Amino acid sequence: MDKNISSTNDYYNFSYIGTPDYNAANRLLAYTLSKADKDSGEYNQQIIVQNIKTNESRIITAGGKSETNPRFTEDGKSLLFISDFPGEKQIYTVNLDTNEIICRTNMRFGVSNPVWSPDGSRIAFLSLCRPDEDTDLLQKPLTKEEKEDIKVMREREPIVITNFGYKSEDSMGFAAKENTHLWIIKIGEEKAIRVSDGSAEHVMPVWSPDGESLLFTSNRCRPKHESIGMDLFIVNKDGKELKQLTSTMWIAYYPAKFVPFFTKDGKSVIVGAMTPSLADGVPSTKLFRVPLDGSEVANLWPENAPCHEATCFFYNSENYGGYYENAQLSSCGKYVYFISGWHGSANIFRANADGEPGITKITKGEHSYRQIGRPQNGKMIVLKGDFHDTPQVYLLDEKDFSENKLTDTAKWLKEKLLSKPLEMWIDSLDGETRIQGWVIPPQNMEKGKKYPAILYIHGGPTPFYGYGLNYEHQCITGAGFALILCNPRGSTGYGDMHARMSKAMDGTAMYDLLQFTDEAVKRNDFIDGKRLGITGGSYGGYMTNWIAAHTSKFKAAVTQRGIANSQIQYASSDMAGNSKQFESFRDFMIDNIKKSPVAFAEKIDIPLLILHPQNDMRCPVEHAHQLYTAVKDTHPDLPVRMVLFPKSNHSLTMNGLMTLRVAHYSELIEWFTKHL
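RE: above sequence
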């Protein structure tokens, strides 16, 4: 059967699986299924419960448009989930025998991350609030009139800023005055109790095996400049006797979280943690065992580990479903299963939970695992995808690590002509490392014909390209282009030396990218080396801007939500910078200009398309305006086009409105079609 080439309109066929849960007692699987509505471009999310024995499925709904985060009780008789019916997101439970659905919370600002206690008597969850707000008032949902009153009041109030961190990428503007706090509600009671206090974030709630205590992570004891610094805390089920468990490490939450969990005896906690330092990028995450009695923390990470760290920062656009835990304790309690990104793959590894540190790799292959479910009866669910499939749920056997596929929500992809990426490795020019990457040939490629190619630079620079479906890439190859991808310096998954942030910004990564491009042209005779384009988003946008101004290798460029002026990034991003490493502020300002692509706008002499979300707080839209004006001013006759995307933040191409995502991808493809 002839297959069809990939196109941007195919995005409306995608159904993304997220946050799956498994109950071994009744052999039930639950997950969120997300799909974009073609008319509105918005996502609808529904809960699917699937009987693994009969393969029968049913939808669980409270009537909301967005229903997510399903979690079974231990006995599998009840399921909790979040629904936005009729307004703010609240926790609902359903009796799976009677189908009775009950709303359990009425939080003023909605809820997130609900988790059952082991006996099903309580639910812990997160909700926004200010330190001094009345807990009873916070459990009365806002009426439409109250929402309008608050909007009017805030429009009439002056905005007072006294500290860093006053912008928010999530809210696409000023940061909310509320913080994420931890709450517990007892089943059968109308009111929840607030467990946390203060003006800090409280995340990743985890119940102890006996249900008497609740573990969570917070920056409540960290200074503001330790932007990703988090500590571990524990509190009893009644919200009393809060105790700090760690202070000399950063519990991994950003940019890649590691949800902690208890050992089998409940006396210790396994964590993924970093050495506190932002000297040269984000530190790598290692495994530790933290005893609750305050005795010495045990390092579970051996020097000869077969991977770089205990988390994975995978760069992929097909991740709308969302994921929870990426680590679990084995059924026997002797091992820690975790997902690590290493050499383009995201595989599962096993570490010793006690005794001599040791790590072994238990899954192999060219794929990307995203989530590990809690082992039950020797089996656990995992989410896994590859170059040609979105993440699907598999049941993995702990004995021999064999897998049984439980879902298949992207059958239509089998009818598409998907190009298979060709792996490449090169030695870096400085001899310090090796660069891994891929060349994706054009779809329907004719033998002997030359095709234009596009270097696509990933963002971060911390994430890495790897073995996962990025359908945008397939759409580009479907339009008749070859694609060049690689993981230059700054990317994780290749060791600490490779991941250094300084190497991503001092020109080293640029030479990695250019060298890899040259080698890709040499090794693949279908690439026309005289028709090369360059693109990238975020950090990739910055590098696109910089390379366009400093080389003549490329014939056209598309910069996406990128950095043009480092001074804008310093002062206006939600990740505000600092000048502390310079002798004077004047030296700092001069250095900012030197490393700003906009300062070299007169050297950008190739057709340039600028794509940027209007409400981007990570890389503010002023970057796009300055670059457009500067290039247009210095090159009046050069094809320069700026396209802005309304009501969209930095994550537009990850989880924004599907109509805007498709428009974004189409603009890029049309630009290169015209100018290459």
